[in-house]
């Protein structure tokens, strides 16, 4: 019954994600209105991509992102993160369209805090949504941004305090450390990891009591069915980590290439990647239109592109999977078409 309940909840979150994406797409159309009016006044005769075509492309990208990259059958927080991300993209655009209203700033801060409760990485990606209004062409009062940041702290702060008290040190979550050891340093899945030369030794690893066959004992202090898997941050805590800039750069380059394969359906992502014809169509449309005007329109969506690029950049430094970066890739592609 627990498995069925989890799948039902995941399906409901998928519905919430669809509503969030609809809000995002509708706000993008609203964001295009001032530019359209300006073009009409200038009598340039330039038209945007038709609304019905933008809807067709946008919802197709959403289905690709949610069903192929994230998937509905996989029980993970990624669908919830995508829903919150789309809501935040919509609110960030609203702060650009209606800079004098306060409620979008408050809601944006609250959702950024909630996204951190869903996934640790959003503690760094969420604030990028809050600080984008600083770059708006119209002056934005600092008071609104401070209110937004305070909402973020009120929601995210208590969880940071609880984690820090539980660990006995200041921490916001050890997911990054675990993934750094696993992917950047190349340890792999560190189940019963006893340490590696040049990387470090766990402070309190599982205890090896047999050599052939290898037998490990882990009787406390962590409980559960299989503690080494469910609480890796305890068993694989190496204390102070030595960061390797060259390894980080190597992993980042590989992850950026993975982004290209996700979009172009290449390499190991040939089964879930976006069809190359979509990207080819976007490139052809940009080539036919004025590239300079297209780039200028893309820049107008800084409240979307900046947080999306921040998310892609952060994951590229450690580890990137389609389910992790799906909402950010989707948002950038939608901006690319909406700017035509």
Account of the 3D structure:
By secondary structure, the chain is mainly alpha-helical. Helix content is 67%, strand content 2%. It has helices spanning 2-42, 51-70, 78-97, 103-118, 122-131, 142-167, 175-184, 227-230, 232-235, 245-264, 276-288, 291-300, 302-318, 322-338, and strands at 207-210, 215-217. Strands 1-2 form a two-stranded antiparallel ribbon. Strand 1 (207-210) and strand 2 form a beta hairpin. The longest helix is centred in the N-terminal third of the chain and has 41 residues, at 2-42. The radius of gyration is 22 Å and the shape is globular. The chain starts with a helix and ends with a helix. Residues 38-44 have low confidence and may be disordered.
What characteristics describe this protein?
340 residues; mainly alpha; two-stranded antiparallel ribbon; 14 helices; globular
> Describe the biggest sheet?
2 strands, antiparallel
Q: How are the strands of the biggest sheet laid out side by side? A: 1-2
Helix content: 55-70%
Over all CA atoms, what is the radius of gyration? 22 Å
- Secondary-structure-derived class: mainly alpha
Give the number of helices.
14
Strand content: under 5%
Terminal Cα span: 48 Å
Q: Report the average pLDDT across residues.
A: 84
List low-pLDDT spans.
38-44
Number of strands: 2
List the helices and strands and how they pair.
Elements: H1 2-42, H2 51-70, H3 78-97, H4 103-118, H5 122-131, H6 142-167, H7 175-184, E1 207-210, E2 215-217, H8 227-230, H9 232-235, H10 245-264, H11 276-288, H12 291-300, H13 302-318, H14 322-338
Antiparallel strand pairs: 1-2
């Amino acid at each position: 019954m627990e498995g069925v309940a989890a799948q039902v909840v995941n399906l409901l979150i998928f519905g919430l994600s669809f509503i969030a994406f609809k809000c995002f797409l509708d706000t993008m159309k609203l964001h295009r209105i001032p530019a359209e009016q300006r073009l009409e006044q200038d009598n340039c005769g330039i038209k945007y991509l038709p609304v019905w075509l933008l809807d067709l492309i946008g919802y197709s990208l959403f289905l690709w992102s949610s069903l192929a990259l994230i998937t509905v059958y996989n029980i993970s927080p990624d669908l919830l993160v995508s829903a919150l991300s789309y809501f935040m993209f919509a609110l960030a655009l609203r702060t650009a369209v209606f800079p004098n209203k306060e409620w979008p700033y408050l809601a944006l801060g609250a959702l950024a805090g909630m996204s951190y409760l869903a996934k640790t990485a959003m503690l760094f990606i969420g604030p990028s949504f809050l600080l984008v209004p600083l770059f708006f062409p119209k002056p934005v009062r600092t008071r609104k941004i401070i209110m937004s940041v305070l909402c973020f702290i009120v929601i995210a702060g208590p969880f940071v305090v609880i984690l820090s008290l539980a660990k006995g040190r200041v921490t916001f979550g050890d997911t990054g450390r675990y993934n750094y050891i696993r992917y950047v340093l190349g340890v792999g899945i560190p189940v019963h990891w006893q340490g590696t030369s040049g990387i470090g030794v766990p402070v309190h690893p599982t205890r090896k009591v047999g050599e052939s066959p290898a037998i490990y004992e882990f009787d406390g202090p962590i409980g559960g069915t299989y503690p080494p898997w469910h609480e890796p941050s305890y068993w694989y805590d190496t204390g102070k980590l030595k960061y390797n800039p060259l390894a980080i750069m190597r992993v980042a380059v590989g992850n950026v290439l993975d982004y290209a394969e996700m979009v172009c359906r290449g390499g190991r992502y040939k089964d879930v990647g976006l069809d190359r014809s979509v990207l080819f169509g976007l490139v052809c449309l940009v080539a036919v239109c004025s590239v300079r005007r297209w780039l200028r329109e893309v820049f107008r969506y800084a409240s979307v592109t900046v947080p999306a690029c921040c998310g892609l950049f952060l994951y590229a430094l450690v580890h990137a999977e389609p389910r992790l970066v799906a909402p950010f890739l989707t948002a950038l592609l939608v901006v690319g078409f909406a700017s035509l």
